[in-house]
Design goal:
alpha+beta, Alpha-Beta Plaits, FAD/NAD(P)-binding domain, 3 domains, 7-stranded mixed β-sheet, 5-stranded parallel β-sheet, 12 helices, 28% helix
């Protein structure tokens, strides 16, 4: 296979057009190509009058050496496919335990199951049968309309959100992760799209399919189960204590892969009380900002906006601020919705998601400012959680209770006045909103950097400072404020057999990076088991 990059093709190109462009690049007749496979496809919209695709493709030809001899260096390169590194053989005396079923935990458990290790996956979430019973109870109590159509896959998507798979990390395991998603029902375009996306509606079934494979391979999934303690002897793990259906039980094991995510504050507190080493780390906080998707499309694509090959336009913005913190957008959801993400009573935080079609009226993104450990107000390792919690509680109060979110028009926010009403852009946050002043729930330094950020971002993306754009508070959980230090063998410091994994442990910043970390931790546990 020969790989060629920077093929420019129109938005309505066909497979024949792609083959012809590849042949021209290789200076071959089109019939000399025996196959063309997409590797990467991105949109080049720098010139709004010429929006087009830029493609990298792998091409099969009869004599690669002859073709390469005739081309200038750099036009094409030979693709050398390395065989996947085989999984170490398991040598566990007892099944390894994976705690958490987000990206890190699910891929750790899948890797262990494929090795034949028969992992036990502990998941706080409920099974489909349990959640179906919950829906029926809510209908009986009048919380849900009797005719409402509520559907669940087998297990929720949880921290996977809507399956945005962009990542800044570099790892050969990224392809492993994407391929696993496709194998379990994700669309194949995630394998070559520059900004791959699955969608909440598809992702929940993909997650369920991966879980079923874990079970089919000999793994066990424990729903509605919470880790309450580690069983430790000296500096070695000997098992875990869990709570399930009101009952406490012990699971003996010498390998625990801890993938609890960035919001399991009670579990973190319990682990800290047991002596697990933790340190503060920086993260970011802010709001969700919503604009009409049509505005974003026009700003990004010009006259090409609305072309069926393009879909809803994304954006990614970042600016510097005088205090060095910076403001940036994160987890942008074209045609999406702002979602409730609170996990504790009396506190409110938000997130965003999109369905596969991305056909909602609004676009939304997290608009964040960097925060530092010195902002936490205390040097305790868990002070970041306490600070997060205080801001979420302030947001709950500002929204008026009942999980209504405080919102503010951008024009009012920039002018430093509370919003008394909303404009033409209506928020998508479903529990309801309360026009307010976000200064009541966010620190002053975040407010000031958000103001600077919005004004500068408007120069990068016309309309970002639209007067009626809606800011919904608060987005506090972009990542964990805590890191669990680990050794080069991926075990926790001074606690052999505990593998801190993923975002909650401070080692990932999205679905793909968390999944990769889960695979690497599973491999490390397998190698340790065979020593």
């Amino acid at each position: 296979m020969l790989r060629i990059a920077n093929l420019s093709l129109p938005l309505d190109y066909s497979d024949t057009d792609l083959s012809a462009a590849a042949a021209r690049k290789l200076k071959l007749p089109q019939k000399a190509l025996s196959g063309v496979q997409l590797v990467k496809k991105s949109v080049d919209a720098r010139d709004k009058g010429d929006v087009h695709f830029v493609i990298t493709a792998d091409v099969r030809v009869k004599d690669e050496n002859d073709v390469l001899r005739r081309l200038k260096p750099g036009v094409a390169e030979r693709v050398i496919t390395k065989p996947a590194k085989p999984l170490p053989k398991p040598g566990f005396t007892r099944p390894p335990v994976v705690v958490g079923a987000g990206p890190a935990g699910l891929f750790a458990a899948l890797t262990l199951a494929r090795s034949g290790a028969n992992p036990i996956l502990i998941e706080r979430g409920k099974s489909v049968e349990e959640r179906t019973r919950d829906v029926e109870t809510m209908r009986e109590k009048g919380v849900l309309d009797p005719e409402s159509n509520v559907q669940f896959g087998e297990g929720g998507a949880g921290t996977f959100s809507d399956g945005k798979l962009t990542t800044g990390t570099k790892s050969p395991l990224i392809r492993t992760v994407l391929s696993a998603f496709v194998e379990h029902g994700a669309p194949e375009d995630i394998l070559y799209s520059a900004k791959p996306h699955i969608g909440t509606d598809i992702l929940k079934n993909v997650v369920a399919s991966i879980r079923r494979e874990i079970i089919r391979l000999g793994g066990t999934v424990m729903f509605s189960t919470r880790l309450t303690a580690l069983i430790v002897r000296g500096e070695h793990i000997e098992g875990v204590t869990v709570q399930q259906d009101g009952q406490s039980r012990e699971i003996l094991t010498d390998s625990v892969l801890l993938a609890i995510g960035h919001s399991a504050r009670d579990t973190m507190q319990s682990l800290f009380n047991q002596g697990v080493i933790m340190v503060q780390k920086p993260f970011a906080m802010g709001v969700r900002i919503e604009h009409p998707q049509s505005l974003i499309d026009r700003s990004q694509y010009g006259s090409a906006a609305g072309h069926p090959a393009l879909g809803a336009a994304p954006y990614k913005l970042a600016v510097r601020t005088p205090d060095g913190r910076g403001a940036y957008t994160f987890c942008m959801c074209p045609g999406g919705e702002v979602m409730a993400a609170a996990s504790q009573p009396g506190g409110l935080c938000v997130n965003g998601m999109s369905y596969r079609a991305r056909d909602g009226v609004n676009a939304n993104a997290a608009l964040l400012v960097g925060v530092r450990p010195e902002d936490f107000g205390d040097d305790h390792p868990l002070a970041g959680f306490v600070w997060q919690r205080s801001i979420e509680q302030a947001a709950f109060r500002t929204g008026g209770g009942g999980f209504k979110a405080p919102v503010q028009r951008v024009e009012d926010f920039l002018a430093g006045r509370a919003s008394a009403r909303l404009g033409d852009i209506q928020p998508t946050y479903r529990p309801g909103v309360t026009p307010a002043d976000l200064r009541a729930c966010l620190p002053e330094f975040i407010i000031e950097d958000l103001k600077l950020g919005i004004r500068q971002m408007d120069r990068q993306l016309r309309g970002f400072a639209h007067p009626d754009a809606v800011m919904t508070g608060v987005e506090t959980r972009s990542s964990s404020p805590v890191r669990l230090p680990r050794t080069p063998l991926m075990t926790a410091e001074r606690l052999d057999g505990l593998f801190p994994v993923g975002e909650g442990a401070g080692y990932a910043g999205g679905i793909v990076s968390a999944a990769v970390d889960g695979i690497e931790a599973a491999r490390a546990a397998l190698e340790r088991s065979s020593l």
